[in-house]
What we know:
Blueprint: E1 29-37, E2 46-47, E3 51-58, E4 60-65, E5 70-74, E6 78-80, E7 87-90, E8 97-105, E9 113-114
Antiparallel strand pairs: 1-8, 2-9, 3-6, 3-8, 4-5, 4-7
Amino acid sequence: MNIKSTELIRTSQSWDGAQLPNFPQGKPELRVIRLDFPVGAKTGWHHHNVINYGIVEQGDLTIVCQDGSERTFHEGEPLVEVIGTIHRGENRGTKPVILDMFYVSSPGIEVTIQHPEL
């Protein structure tokens, strides 16, 4: 049996076109977090200080930035998150969203910083 390899994305930019920051100094810490969004669910407003990317395993996820810009990512689509931009994720679809996110940081660094509701 042959193994098929498909590159889904290769980029140095987040989904909004901004350049990703340099890697932090020191020992790396990698995290993988699965997020399950029921229909109608929204995250709180937050931002990330570290590079993170993922793939929408199921459903359609809309990322809404504080400035009103937004983009919807569909099932099977890769997502490179915005860094330092306040945003939230929303499931506006008709089925639950499953999102696997990969974070590249250093030990002790918070990967998600929560903000009060706007």
